[in-house]
Structures are given as structure tokens and as C-alpha cells.
Amino acid sequence: MADTRKGLLSPFVSVIRARSLTKRYGNFLAVDGIDFDIEAGESFGFLGPNGAGKSTTMRMISAQSTRTSGTLDVLGLDTNEYGPEIRAQLGIVPQADQLDEELRVFDNLTTYGRYFGFSRAHVRNRAEELLDFAQLREKRGVRVSELSGGMKRRLTIARGLMNSPKVFLLDEPTTGLDPQARHILWDRLFRLKEQGTTLVLTTHFMDEAEQLCDRLVVVDKGVIVAEGSPRSLIQQYSTREVVELRFGSSRNAWAAEQLVGIGDRLEVLPDRVLVYADHGEAALESAVHRGLEPTSSLVRRSSLEDVFLRLTGRSLIE
């Protein structure tokens, strides 16, 4: 049996379980009765545009915000009843870094670690380990204000790991980072997952979700519109490939009419026409044979962006 008072759970049961989870702010329904389970050791994502309810859900999971109705258990504990006990076992990375800019890198870690009541020796040893994990050993004595954005984000992640959390929550972990910094961060998170840490993240970057998530839910306007692995969602809601054709904003709608019958379906966006087909090159050849001359064309594999467009009729980045 699980000891729900201490949150000591079997690795084969859900570490997070929500049923009819709802959050209202006055008349605004931010989260609308959602259900989900997150298993121990998996990397689980909430994918959706800004304002979809992802961050609100994360605040409830971290016991920083109470739910309006429904149930939500984290590590066997009710989040509305056992907030301090839950937070002691979580690692949390907020959207914006909350580092002390005047402290040095090592001191940021040790100061935060002391909040959990660990001994000074334990905190220092753990901080040394995390300097290596975050690839910040050479910046040990540097003030945070002198770090790059990517280094600050890695330090924030290292700080969130000071208590060796069972569950690690990351809200938009790579927003604002350049591609190189994002890939370094992805590598650090993948290593955590290999060590058995349960990762829960929000993102509106489809490539990030595909790279990091074993399973995810697509959220829009406070509700879950799809759930599954990235690959299964793409297989279910899209074709193998997509052809992107640009004819000019004034001619895209006209061109789409000429493309009817090519591929499985079409999407007309303000700047391009998308042709969904299992064989993109063949679809592109068919368009050319019909006398269409796009100003640019691209054949690519389907992504979670296409899934979201299919489900909601709009882009993830809108």
C-alpha cells in the first residue's frame, strides 16, 4: 500500500492524478474540468498556446494555487490540503528566472538549498554536484548578473534540483533561449529523465514537446483536446508529410481552390497553403502539373503544430 501521508508511492502508480480539475478566476474559466494521470519516471507535457491554461494547471500541481473543484493528488497527497508537504518533494522551474542577480552562482544554489532544512555540508555537496550537471563549474564564482540567458536558465534548473525532487515541474523552460542554449537544456533534462526523475513541462514549442515528452496533452481554452505520445498524435491527426506552398497573401485562397483533390486535405493560412499528404513530393509534382507556380515550396514531415492546427483551426504560436 502507498503511504499517502508521506507520498511514498510505488513506481507503477500515478504520481499525479487529476479528475474534473477546474480553476475559475471570477467569471473566467481558466481550466475546465480536465482529467490526466502522470506516471512515475515519465516526461509529460502540456502543449498549447499562451492562455490555454497550462501555467494555471502547473500552479495547481505545485500547490501554489488551490483548485476551484475536482480532485488533484500529487505523490498521494491532496494539493489543497498538503501544500507544504508536496512542495518539499517537488522541483519547480517557473517561466521567468527568479535568481538573486547579486549573488554568485554557487551561493545561489546553497542559499536556496538551506530553505529545505538540509545541513550546510549536504547543501554544499549537492551544489557542487549540480554545478557539474548544469555545466557551470567554470562559472562557480561569477555573479548571476554576468551570465548569459542560457546559463541563467541552467542555473535555475540546477537550483530546482537542490532537494533531489521526485517530480520536476518546468513551465516554458526554454522560452527566450537561442537554439544552441535550447539544445543544451534539452540534453540536461533528458539526463534527468534517464535518472528516473518524473518531468512535467509546459511548452508552446512543438519541437520541444517532440524531443522531451513521452506523452502529452494538447490544451486549448482550458480543455484537453487530445492526449498521447507525440508520434501517436501525429499519426492520428495528420499525414506523414506536409507541403507548404506560398503564392502571395492575395492569391493563397485562389490557389487552394486549384489544389483541391491533391493530398488528403488542405489548410489555408494567411501566408501559405498547407497540403497534407503521405507523399509530399508527389503532391508537389501534382500541383506543378496543374500549372501552379508557388513563390516558394517546402516538403516536411508532419509535426505537433499540424496536430494543433487540425484540432483547433489555429497555430500554436498565435
UniProtKB/TrEMBL annotation:
The scientific name of the source species is Tessaracoccus oleiagri
Whether Cell wall biogenesis/degradation counts among this entry's keywords is no
Principal subcellular localization: membrane
Check the record and name the PANTHER family matching this protein.
ABC TRANSPORTER ATP-BINDING PROTEIN, ABC TRANSPORTER ATP-BINDING PROTEIN NATA
Task: Name the GO cellular-component terms.
Answer: plasma membrane
Q: Where is the ABC transporter domain?
A: 16-246
Pfam families membership: ABC_tran
The biological process GO terms on file are: carbohydrate metabolic process; response to antibiotic
Family, according to the entry, reads as follows:
Belongs to the ABC transporter superfamily.
Compartment list: Cell membrane
What is the recorded membrane topology of this protein? Peripheral membrane protein
Question: How is this protein named in the record?
Answer: Lipooligosaccharide transport system ATP-binding protein
Q: Write out the GO MF terms.
A: ATP binding; ATP hydrolysis activity; hydrolase activity, hydrolyzing O-glycosyl compounds
Q: Which UniProt keywords apply?
A: Antibiotic resistance, ATP-binding, Cell membrane, Membrane, Nucleotide-binding, Translocase, Transport
**InterPro entries assigned to the protein according to its UniProt record, in alphabetical order:** AAA+_ATPase, ABC_transporter-like_ATP-bd, ABC_transporter-like_CS, ABC_transporter_ATP-binding, Glyco_hydro_18_chit_AS, P-loop_NTPase
